[in-house]
Design brief:
- The complex is a heterodimer of chains A (190) and B (664).
- Chain A is α/β, with parallel strands linked by helices and 190 residues long.
- Chain A has a single domain, classed as Glutaredoxin (3-Layer(aba) Sandwich).
- Chain A contains 5 helices and 7 strands; from the N terminus they run αβββαβαβαββα.
- In chain A, the strands form 2 sheets. Chain A has a 5-stranded mixed sheet with strand order 5-4-3-6-7. In chain A, strands 1-2 form a two-stranded antiparallel ribbon.
- In chain A, β6 and β7 form a beta hairpin.
- Chain A starts with a helix and ends in a 7-residue tail after the last helix.
- By secondary structure, chain B is an alpha+beta fold.
- In chain B, 52% of the residues are buried.
- The radius of gyration of chain B is 26 Å and the shape is globular.
- Chain B has 21 helices and 9 strands.
- Helix content of chain B is 61%, strand content 12%.
- Among the domains of chain B are: 159 residues, Four Helix Bundle (Hemerythrin (Met), subunit A); 102 residues.
- In chain B, the strands form 2 sheets. Chain B has a 5-stranded antiparallel sheet, with no helix packed on it.
- Classes of the chains: A alpha/beta (190), B alpha+beta (664).
């Protein structure tokens, strides 16, 4: 009987080793870059309190859009937010939001206080969709093309410099692509 | 040319390590003494060749030889020289070479210490050689740092700018000294199992290595946290990231090991447990290496995501850990304590401390690997965050802080609980009073306040015991200071350091103040008692980056205190930005300023934080590390270690060997 106790560490290690080995056969962790040029992972998120529409990955078809991951708990989002508000005012690109790991009602309150730049918002309280998206922290912003493919990802707050340098030129290119697709009748424009 | 020499040196180091590992064990089986002697020179040869390979890699980095792939990928001609050197280990290949170099260094230390007739140390040396051979083969097969590139590009891709920082330049070497240092206790544990000899003499042989490794690991972890604090720009110092956990788990197990070694050395109790901890600590170091390099868990730190390397490291894990635990399961049941465990004694307190440390370690392990287990078993993807760790781990930390005072006030063998607790009554009353007052003020943060009260109790108890022994108010205090054994200083400093660090972590982690605002030059914001005025933002140029430096004027209650600068750096080669927070450290806490993006109309994003007591984290960690080094006998004049007669303790029916020379 006493001998069995001394076998416990070995048994635990063998189990852990089995998991490690299986873990290696898995697609090595979804790094952000692996999503680039791939379709958005499938998600269908419910609306947050105070809104009626949620966010599905199908919502991204039809024209280039931004996808912004935020949360009321996220301090860097407060910094980013005025810029998103301005974007919503001056730019035509729809901004979709994912309210990440928020308490019920917290997102609504936060938007009431800071303004709401989002066309649609999905609620992701468990963080499940964000994991599929490979989100490492908030805020993160994805540029999604008219076919629903991720084309670019920015980690951290976006501001005028990133907008002018990375996002706007890409959006112009994506709009051109979408237009070309439409003329060829190759897409599912709404 | 130098790169090829480095490669040659690596191959020779592998041959020497194999020799060091295989022959003494084989000779031991056949009872051939002459052959067994070969382990020592082989260990020195392996060290020399590995050092040669490391020097060669350092050389090609120093002269920016862009025909070597490793240099191209991690260096740039305009990079400051110091970071050309630290760039040697700022990447996978170089860091694993550093890992192996440190392993062979510890092999050399064991070889220096191993006497001619010391079978235990010689077997340990052989184990060390086998581990070294495994890692040298790993480098040669999967991670060759000397691979050439043709044609050589005109310039390199630069080192990740986040790594171009003095804190991070020295963080990995310290961390590895810690990780790898625990290979020595591990090797001694295997040797002890093979020889069936785990007693006070065994503990004495292991303790200096365990102490040194622990001290380095403590400093290494603290440097990493410090780097995250000032370089990542959000004031966080610990995020329960898998790679941070990978260094923290060996620290917890190693701390338990140190304590159990002490009990084994003095009282001969729980030899099997100490063995297990020695195996566990190094196993966790290896698993940490595996974690970072296989890409098995995503992490912001993982810098070599490569399944082929993962499979090789998995093999090393299976052989080293699986093999040692098998040996443990076969041999350890035969080990006997030299004395019975008395319920009220220092050794019981140490056992309790060990249980808490290992319990905390298990929580960290589960939290770190649960996402992996859940995904494989149930196909669900989840992330385990700070709330879990804080809720499940911190109670263990609280219990440890609670036990420190009473435990170290108890005597060995047969303690007097009433007398010991009576000695700590002032410490107890003061910290209880502190807790109650603080609770009244911050009842919403009861957990942190209670933690602070326990830290205060641990710190004050340590001070009480220290003063009771030294009695500075009586004549002859100097004599008592010099007479106090190094281990007393070591224990007092480590416990005090832990209490201070706990205070700092709780203060900065649970009571931060924050203010974020768009600020135009000439305007300002308030945070805590400080008024922060943005005087100007001026552009500048570093050696391989452009900067924007903000100059802030800090005042409080209208009284000017000082200027403080915060910087944003842009590294064109990698297109990355880093922040250099402006930090003003005071005893009460840190004022922490960062400069963010600029908005054309509204100005700059300025974030101002106050982190109460943050400086205590670093001071506490430094004191802990110092405590570990003092235990090695570092302070001259304090070296008159009380020499104990070799306790004739028998374990597993084997006669005890005469104790080797006492470590400092």
């Amino acid at each position: 009987m006493k001998r069995l106790v001394f076998l416990v560490p070995l048994a635990l290690f063998v189990i852990a080793l089995g998991y490690f080995a299986l873990g290696l056969t898995r697609d090595p962790a979804k790094l952000p870059s692996t999503l680039i040029d791939r379709p958005l992972p499938d998600f269908d998120l419910p609306p947050i309190a105070g809104r009626t529409t949620g966010l599905r990955s199908a919502d991204f078809h039809g024209g280039p859009k931004l996808l912004n991951i935020w949360g009321s708990w996220c301090t860097a989002c407060v910094v980013e937010h005025p810029f998103l508000m301005e974007l919503a005012r001056v730019s035509e690109v729809p901004i979709m939001g994912v309210d990440w790991k928020d308490a019920p009602g917290a997102g609504e309150k936060w938007l009431a206080r800071h303004g709401d730049p989002f066309t649609r918002i999905g609620d992701d309280p468990s963080g499940r969709a964000a994991i599929d998206l490979g989100v490492t922290g908030a805020p993160e912003t994805f540029v999604v093309d008219a076919r629903g493919r991720v084309r670019h990802k920015i980690i951290g707050p976006i501001g005028p410099a990133i907008w002018a340098g990375e996002i706007e030129p890409l959006l112009r290119q994506l709009r051109a692509e979408a237009a070309a697709d439409t003329t060829q009748g190759a897409t599912d424009v709404r | 040319m130098v790169a090829e020499l480095g490669q040659m040196a690596l191959i020779l180091a592998l041959i020497a390590a194999l020799y060091q590992g295989v022959f003494p064990l084989w000779a031991g089986l056949r009872g051939d003494r002459g052959m067994a002697q070969a382990a020592r020179p082989a260990a020195f040869a392996s060290l020399a060749f590995t050092a040669g390979a490391f020097a060669a890699l350092t050389f090609v980095h120093a002269i920016s030889d862009f025909s070597v792939l490793n240099v191209v990928e991690n260096s740039h001609s305009a990079k400051p020289f110091i970071y050309k050197l630290s760039g040697v280990w700022g990447n996978h290949e170089g860091s694993i070479l550093l890992w192996t170099l440190i392993l062979t260094c510890f092999g050399g230390l064991i070889a220096m210490q191993a006497g001619k007739e010391d079978g235990l140390a010689r077997t340990a040396l052989a184990i060390q050689g086998l581990i070294g051979a495994g890692f040298l083969a790993f480098i040669l097969l999967t991670s060759n740092p000397f691979a050439r590139v043709f044609p050589a590009p005109p310039d390199g891709r630069d080192l990740n700018p986040l790594l171009q920082d003095p804190g991070l330049a020295i963080h990995p070497p310290f961390l590895y000294l810690g990780y790898v240092g625990f290979s020595a206790p591990f090797a001694f544990a295997i040797a002890g199992l093979i020889h069936g000899r785990v007693d006070a003499a065994w503990a004495r042989a292991v303790r200096p290595f365990a102490l040194a490794a622990w001290a380095f690991l403590t400093i290494g972890i603290a440097l990493g946290a410090w780097w995250a604090y000032y370089e990542l720009g959000w004031g966080g110092f610990w995020a329960w990231d898998p790679v941070e956990n990978a260094s923290f788990m060996p620290w917890l197990a190693g701390t338990a090991l140190l304590h159990s070694l002490r009990a084994l050395e003095t009282r001969g109790v729980f030899p099997g447990w100490a063995l297990f901890l020695a195996i566990l600590t190094f196993s966790l170091s290896l698993i940490g290496t595996f974690l970072v390099r296989s890409g098995i868990l995503t992490s912001v730190h993982a810098f070599a995501v490569d399944p082929a390397r993962g499979i090789y490291i998995l093999l090393i894990l299976a052989i080293v850990i699986g093999g040692s635990l098998t040996l443990f399961a076969i041999r350890a049941p035969g080990l006997r304590s030299a004395s019975r465990l008395a319920p009220v004694s220092r050794e019981s307190a140490i056992l309790l401390n060990n249980l808490f440390l290992v319990g905390g370690c298990a929580v960290v392990f589960i939290g770190t690997f649960y996402p992996l287990f859940a995904e494989i078993a149930a196909g669900t993807r989840i992330s385990v965050g700070a709330p879990f760790f804080n809720l499940a781990f911190l109670p263990f930390m609280g219990l440890i802080l609670l036990v420190i005072g009473p435990g170290s006030a108890l005597a060995w063998k047969k303690g007097d609980a009433t007398a010991s607790l009576a000695r700590l009554r002032i410490a107890g009353i003061v910290s209880l009073g502190f807790t109650l007052i603080a609770l009244a003020l911050y009842w919403q943060k009861a957990g942190a306040v209670i933690g602070g009260g326990l830290a205060a109790f641990a710190g004050l108890s340590t001070l009480t015991e220290f003063l009771r022994r030294i009695r500075p108010w009586r004549a002859g205090a100097v004599a008592r200071i010099t007479a106090a054994p190094a281990r007393f200083w070591s224990m007092s400093l480590a416990h005090l350091g832990l209490a201070l660090a706990a205070f700092g972590v709780l203060g900065a982690g649970a009571f931060p103040l924050e203010s974020i605002r768009y600020v135009q030059p000439g305007a300002g914001l308030k945070v805590g008692a400080y008024e922060v005025l943005l005087k100007e933002v001026r552009p500048g140029k570093g050696p391989n980056y452009d900067t924007e430096t903000a100059v802030f004027a800090i005042s409080s209650g209208g009284r000017f205190l000082r200027d403080l600068r915060a910087e944003r750096r842009f590294y064109p080669v990698r297109g990355m930005q880093t922040t250099e927070a402006g930090i003003w450290s005071r005893v009460s806490g840190d004022l922490y300023l960062t400069l963010g993006e600029r908005h054309p109309e509204q100005g700059y994003v300025v974030r101002a934080h106050v982190y109460p007591l943050a400086g205590l984290m670093w001071a506490g960690a430094a004191i802990m590390g110092l405590g570990g080094l003092v235990g090695l006998g570092g302070i001259p004049g304090l070296r008159r270690q009380a020499r104990r007669p070799a306790q004739a303790m028998k374990a597993a029916g084997m006669p005890a060997s005469p104790a080797p020379a006492e470590q400092g």
